[in-house]
Amino acid sequence: MLKITKLNKSYGATQVLHDISLEVAQGQVVAIIGPSGSGKSTLLRCVNLLETPQSGQMTIGSQRLDVASMSRADANQLRQQTAMVFQHYNLFKNKTALENITESLIIGKKMPRQQANAIGLALLDKVGLSLKADSYPSRLSGGQQQRVAIARALAVSPRVMLLDEPTSALDPELVNEVLQVIRAIIDHQTTILLVTHEMAFARDIADRIIFMDEGVILEDGTPEQVFGAPQHARTARFLQTVHQPTTPESGPGR
């Protein structure tokens, strides 16, 4: 579903991503972990072309492009295969929860409002916010805003869903409600890339764990491999220093 080949990204003289190559199968859940500044969020933003890499190739489904020579139309076609959930929600402050979800359907996909509203209400119910359809972001908690943002991302039926540290801006007591929603949306059809500092959650829900440091992928394996027997000393040091909070109760892991 997703293939990245020799992706490079620099800001001026500072190279942030170094020849990143990665393949992810349809429906896989991949958690990307690593220290701050390791390039995790930049990688997600490059996949969504919010950041333009200097070189490399990307394929999502049947859409393939070379980033050095892509046209605006090429970029738009690839971007339409993805949806992103940001650290700070990025909701429209002047629109209700329902309007935030339906905006991309009505404006981007030219969907009739009644049909878009039906989809939006169903998604609000899925994330546990059916009673907040007419609420503006200022009347929602941080956890509720992030749940609306997840519903908005789901609305466009993306092939690849990108979640960039979706709990990092939340108060600790609100983290679990968002983690529960992420757990609930895993359907083994939509490919998910999740950048997170929630180590126990990543270990529980991910099919693969990728550890990044200084703009390169140092480790890529199952949760059991990466957390239980890391191959690189840098990975082991990182895992020894991070706090691993308790995940929401969930029964056996996948």
What is the structure about, briefly put?
The protein is α/β, with parallel strands linked by helices and 254 residues long. The protein contains nine helices and ten strands.
What name does the CATH topology of the largest domain carry? Rossmann fold
Main pleated-sheet profile = 6 strands, mixed
The CATH superfamily of the largest domain is identified as P-loop containing nucleotide triphosphate hydrolases
CATH class category label of the largest domain: Alpha Beta
The CATH architecture of the largest domain: 3-Layer(aba) Sandwich
Q: Tell me the strand order in the biggest sheet.
A: 6-7-8-3-9-10
Give the uncertain stretches in residue-range form: 245-254
List the total number of helices: 9
Which range does the strand content fall in? 15-25%
Into how many domains do the coordinates divide?
A: 2
- Share of residues in helices: 25-40%
SSE succession:
EEEHEEHEHHHEHEHEEHH
Tally of DSSP β-strands = 10
Shape: globular
In angstroms, what is the radius of gyration?
Answer: 18 Å
